[in-house]
Design goal:
The chain is mainly β. The protein has a single domain, classed as Jelly Rolls. The protein has no helices and 7 strands. Helices cover about 0% and strands about 45% of the residues.
Length: about 120
């Protein structure tokens, strides 16, 4: 089943509304879906979202998912651990990019000063 995104023209985003905490994340991390949707059960779809970390926000476990993920750090800082057993974090700042295939463990994550990410998730 193909689930294309809707046609959207340029529009101003209200950056103060429509943020939600994704399942499995702490409340200091929120996302705003821009377009599309992903269905992990049927392994179909795609979505584009903004993900924001409040200053000091962090996750405690590595993530893994069944879809492709592209991440662009728009602003702020994101500290990334090699894995949940390694306490060493690498700090990245705005205009940093990652592309992960399905099945790759990544994180945990934290942000010292907060950050804003643009993410695209999709199934081939």
């Amino acid at each position: 089943m193909r689930m294309p995104k809707q046609h959207l023209e340029f529009m101003r985003l209200n950056m103060d509304e429509d943020w939600e905490t994704p399942e499995g994340y702490p409340p200091e991390i929120q996302h705003k879906i821009l377009a599309g949707r992903i269905d992990e059960t049927s392994r179909a779809g795609n979505r584009t979202r903004l993900l924001r970390f409040a200053p000091g926000a962090f996750t405690t476990e590595a993530f893994v998912h069944t879809y492709w993920e592209e991440v662009f750090l728009l602003s702020g800082d994101l500290c990334v651990a090699d894995d949940e057993n390694n306490p060493d974090f690498t700090k990245y700042e705005g205009f940093t990019y990652a592309c992960r295939p399905p099945g790759v463990y990544h994180g945990p994550f934290r942000s010292e000063n907060g950050c804003l990410l643009l993410e695209v998730h999709f199934y081939p």
